[in-house]
Amino acid sequence: MLPFLLLASRAEDAAAEDEYAAYLRYGGLEERELLRIRLEAGPLPPLDLSQFSGVIVGGSPFTSSDPPEHKSPVQNRVERELSTLLDQLVDRDFPFLGACYGVGTLGTHQGAVIDRTYGEQLGAVEVELTEAGLQDPVLQGMPPTFTALTGHKEACTELPPHAVLLARSESCPVHMFRIRTNLYATQFHPELDADGLATRIDIYRHAGYFPPESAEELMAAARRFTVTEPMTVLKNFVARYAR
């Protein structure tokens, strides 16, 4: 099998390693089947897409909708590189799954309105599939509503006309969408379980997602969640596009 490519951008080693392990575990992948590039560590090297089954973009502390002058040089570089890569991916309708940061990157690239209107705190949300979502192969086997873990400062306020809305929640109108046939973005995390959420709360307690003094309470609450359905998205994506 050709490997999948995980493009990560978490500078904290503990968060980066926990994320990579989660994609391996819930994607049913071996390390040789999931090549990781940490974009925050250096420029994206030239890629031959014919050598990969698909591209996955993990979550990020970056906020796409911030003005360029408020972003670090690293974030601006990463976003330029992802935009250039998305030019190729969209043109080829190449398998792509962006988790959380994927909404900001793919959405921005495709003309969606991304802003801070519908941010959600770290925790569990009830996600509802649309009619299109119920028919989509990457969501095959998912119940009409399910619990997912999330935590994001920004979200998609308005999709472009050519995008297909696949899932939403009461507090966030766009939780998953598709571009063309094979490019997906989710606002919820298909790789994240309760322990992983607690790890991220601990690591990002000073990143502006929540008041730092509430971290311990949020970590305790996170460990009470039982979340299993979102991982089906990752499993289905791998099964559909592995080649």
UniProtKB/TrEMBL annotation:
InterPro entries in the cross-refs: ChyE-like, Class_I_gatase-like, GATASE
Residue ranges occupied by any Glutamine amidotransferase domain in the UniProt entry: 50-192
Pfam entry (one): GATase
Keyword Methyltransferase: no
Keywords: Glutamine amidotransferase
Matching PROSITE patterns: GATASE_TYPE_1 (PS51273)
Superkingdom of this protein's organism: Bacteria
Entry protein name: Glutamine amidotransferase
Lineage, uppermost ranks: Bacteria, Bacillati, Actinomycetota, Actinomycetes, Micrococcales
